[in-house]
From TrEMBL:
<dbReference type="InterPro" id="IPR000863">
    <property type="entry name" value="Sulfotransferase_dom"/>
</dbReference>
<dbReference type="InterPro" id="IPR027417">
    <property type="entry name" value="P-loop_NTPase"/>
</dbReference>
<protein>
    <recommendedName>
        <fullName>Sulfotransferase</fullName>
        <ecNumber>2.8.2.-</ecNumber>
    </recommendedName>
</protein>
<dbReference type="GO" id="GO:0008146">
    <property type="term" value="F:sulfotransferase activity"/>
</dbReference>
<keyword id="KW-0808">Transferase</keyword>
<comment type="similarity">
    <text>Belongs to the sulfotransferase 1 family.</text>
</comment>
<dbReference type="Pfam" id="PF00685">
    <property type="entry name" value="Sulfotransfer_1"/>
</dbReference>
<feature type="domain" description="Sulfotransferase">
    <location>
        <begin position="60"/>
        <end position="316"/>
    </location>
</feature>
Length: 323
């Protein structure tokens, strides 16, 4: 199986010729992104995603976490790790899984690993039940994922806070020593869906609809619900993952995965995510809801609210909009 992924130099060539045909945009005036079947990708991620779609073999007991960017992925990874691999007795001991490595190290983002030397071997070699993550939209999941019994947990977030979190993050990785990319220009990209793994609304809606069709296989969570009702949401998540947790265990999981604690663990303050080179620390900023109030103009707020109303109309989906 691993050899299938490794022997893809011909697919790399075909992706290069494919890229010439695709709509292209320079994100933040720096990073080329390409539109494929309605969503935007960096070239290496698109190449990896095409291999993932055609070749990834899911196991029935896989847990696949899914999200678009800056919606609480790191938190969800940590929560699932603690639910599946933690216990109250390991509290603050060195063997606690969250002290042994960052959530992104333990739960690989699959399309970031494909084509990196030997990365797939890591995923292939992971013991069951595997806990893996993807930012890819629902239509990019392989038939094997869709046809297997594996479970998917999707997390999303109010698009206003997602946008501000994304703007900060992109500035930190693309323009670390420069003036931030103008908020207005970034907003234009985000609201038009022209950003990595965008459009936001289509990404969310497809997983939402799939979760309605297959609630036993796809759990749909929001960052805001986790903030507002952490105990209820963690119980729901644990039960979906096949673990029963009592009140003491839930409190322990929430404490271990709290923003301040994770942000200050040595493994998250230092170092890089091994497969994509991003700073571990870059995944922790403020960790609150409604921070976008401090940045968005009333017009921007109204623009995103209107888009939400239009895109989610009749879907039953509510993403904690203020207006
Ligand atoms: P902010 O930039 O609004 O602070 P992702 O993990 O999908 O990249 O999302 C990152 C966002 O989640 C950032 O939001 C980050 O601060 C927040 N976050 C990270 N860990 C968290 C945690 N344990 N609890 C709450 N929010 C967290």
């Amino acid at each position: 199986m691993a050899s299938n992924y490794e022997s893809n130099s011909s697919s790399a060539t075909s992706v290069e010729s494919l890229l010439d045909e695709l709509p292209k945009h320079k994100l933040f005036d720096i990073c080329d992104i390409y539109q494929w079947e309605g969503f935007w990708y960096e070239s290496r991620i698109l190449e990896a995603a095409l291999v993932f779609k055609s070749q990834f073999i899911a196991r029935d007991d896989d847990f696949i976490l899914a999200s678009t960017v800056k919606t609480g992925t790191t938190w969800l990874k940590a929560l699932c790790l603690s639910i599946l691999h933690g216990n109250p007795d390991d509290k603050n001991k060195e063997e606690e899984i969250l002290k042994k490595g960052s959530p992104h190290m333990h739960v690989p983002t699959i399309e970031s690993m494909i084509f990196e030397e030997n990365r797939y071997a890591i995923i292939e070699g992971m013991p069951s039940p595997r806990l893996i993550h993807t930012h890819l939209p629902y239509n990019f999941l392989s038939d094997s994922v869709k046809n297997s019994k594996c479970k998917i947990v999707y997390i999303t977030r109010n698009p206003k806070d997602t946008f501000i979190s994304w703007w900060y993050f992109m500035n930190s990785i693309l323009r670390p020593n420069e003036e931030p990319f103008p908020l207005e220009k970034a907003f234009d990209c985000f609201s038009k869906g022209v950003y990595i793994h965008g459009p936001f609304f289509d990404h969310v809606l497809r997983y939402w609809n799939a979760s309605l069709e297959m609630p036993e296989r796809i759990l749909f969570l929001t960052y805001e619900e986790l903030k507002i009702d952490p105990t209820g949401q963690v119980k729901k998540l644990a039960s979906f993952l096949g673990k029963s947790v009592d009140e003491v265990e839930v409190d322990d999981i929430l404490w271990k995965c709290s923003f301040e604690r994770l942000k200050n663990l040595e493994v998250n303050k230092n170092g890089y995510v091994p497969y994509n080179g991003l700073l571990n620390a870059s995944f922790y900023r403020k960790g609150v809801i409604e921070d976008s109030r401090n940045y968005l103009t009333p017009d921007m707020e109204e623009n995103l609210s209107r888009l939400c109303r239009e895109k989610f109309q009749g879907s039953g989906l509510d993403l904690y909009l203020r207006r």
